[in-house]
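For reproducibility, we list the full input for the AN7 complex.
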Amino acid sequence: MWKGVIDKYKDFLPVTGSTPIITLNEGNTPLIYAPHLSKCIDAVTPELFLKYEGLNPTGSFKDRGMTLAISKAIEEKSNAVICASTGNTSASAASYSARAKIKCVVLIPKGAIALGKLAQALIHGAQVIAVDGNFDDALNLVKEITDKYPIKLVNSINPYRIEGQKTGAFEICDQLEGKHPDFHAIPVGNAGNITAYWKGYKEYREKGLITGLPKMLGFQAEGAAPIVRGKVVKNPKTIATAIRIGNPASWKKAELARDESGGLIDMVSDKEILDAYKMLADREGVFVEPASSASVAGVLKLSKTGYFKKVHNPKIVCVLTGHGLKDPDRAIKSVKEPKVVPTNLQSVLKEIGY
Ligand code: AN7
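The corresponding predicted structure, in tokenized form, follows.
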């Protein structure tokens, strides 16, 4: 039986037999072949796969790291945790804290997190405080508080978060039956996840479980692209609220992942993000939140430059970090409202075209 990522990958994680494991059986998310997208890639027999992290218990990849961060917090006898969040970290922290029966405080940028995520943090009983600033401001406050008070920080600066999240890379290689992808595409916000995946791939290679490493391709939103632009973005702007971050905590580690792997970090426009978002939904049947589709938007953008042509039969994995239901407002804004017709068979049939 699948009992979550700590149970499955404990040999790679900083746990012992006496670590209390707080889990919701996260991980084991599907790696889905994407036939339409594969056809869109300019290369010889390309294969594109989607790592659908939206199917984790709270609907995002954050659960992989949160299971470990909360388990270690309990092992270390903490009774309260805190995070700043663009939404998904708060949803995950709130859920795992509820399960562990500890206090959870979350600081969110006022008015800037998607409705589903706010609902999650609240329903799990977290204390949600909105600050009149952006994510970066909220994270600075959280750092100051955790420096001075006995409350554990569970943002990805917490090394256990990165340790847990690296299991995503292990799963991809397991699902590809001992092969590593040639390219690993991922959205970049605070840059914890790209750091975690790179660490995971490297550890799997050291153990001889894969023979090579992917090139890491990170994608930021154009209005929130500090790493691409090489400077802090004071007022980050993008419809992909999850990655609306102007000063990523793991900035240097993301650059290291890029450079060691021979990959790149680029940016995509909100239009490119939304086009990929719709394409994933209506051509692949996979519903994600806008930030997640940045990985696909980035791959499509790169493909147009002939980037993937240099590899024969390239295997590309795009991480889809969060579920589409997280941001229902964006989904509704992206489609036509349903047509209203009179309640009779004739009107409905006429509408269908029979
Ligand atoms: C769906 O929840 O930063 O580069 O506070 O929710 O590891 O930050 C979320 C980030 C990508 C970026 N996709 O990952 C938070 C938060 C989704 C996300 C990212 C986030 P990182």
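The longest strand covers residues 103-109. The chain has a mean pLDDT of 97. Both points were considered when choosing residues for closer inspection.
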